[in-house]
Amino acid sequence: MLIHHFWVRRVENLPVSSRQIGGCTIWPVPEKATGVVPKVLRGTVVTHRRRCWKPNCRCADGEALHEQVILSYSQESRARSVTLPSELIKPVRQATQRYREARQRLEAEGTASLEAFVQYLKTTR
Ligand SMILES: [Zn+2]
């Protein structure tokens, strides 16, 4: 069992049950949670490295920075992002790659058929 706090709430129909610990709602995520990643996903996986600015943290020297991996995307013309739990980084990255490849294939197919169609109309009418 892996514990993730804010992610599962958005995924419906997962067989999880929450429990309260110290005022926090804890959501156990089944290890097969990677199966919830769709085949294609629009967006870009981005790694952020940053300091938290707590004086005694390991990141205070400016070298051992915190890494946070997010899925960056746009929705209704606004830039948005969501933090990715570590076990979902790889499948989400693959899903965004499949999306880009599928979009390129569709654009190439649409362009080729458009050119052929225009040519047909020009030569037969
Ligand atoms: Zn820190």
Would you identify the regions where 5 or more consecutive residues have pLDDT less than 50? 1-15
Percent range for helical residues? 25-40%
Q: What is the average of the pLDDT values?
A: 83
**Total helical elements:** 1
Structural class: alpha+beta
- What value does the Rg take, in angstroms? 22 Å
In whole angstroms, the N-to-C terminal distance is 67 Å
Total beta strands: 6
**What is the molecular shape?**
elongated
| Cofactors, ions, other ligands | zinc ion
Strands of the widest sheet, in order across it, are 1-3-2
Describe what this molecule looks like in 3D.
- By secondary structure, the chain is of the alpha+beta class.
- It has a domain at 1-32.
- Helix content is 31%, strand content 28%.
- It contains 1 helix and 6 strands; from the N terminus they run E-E-E-E-E-E-H.
- The chain has one helix spanning 86-124; strands at residues 2-4, 19-21, 24-29, 44-50, 66-75, 78-83.
- Strand 5 and strand 6 form a beta hairpin.
- 7% of the residues are buried.
- It binds zinc ion.
- The site of zinc ion (ZN) has 6 residues, from loops.
How do the helices and strands line up, and which of them pair or pack?
Layout: E1 2-4, E2 19-21, E3 24-29, E4 44-50, E5 66-75, E6 78-83, H1 86-124
Antiparallel strand pairs: 1-3, 2-3, 4-5, 5-6
Bound molecules: zinc ion (ZN).
Residues 51-52, 54, 57, 59, 66 line the site of zinc ion.
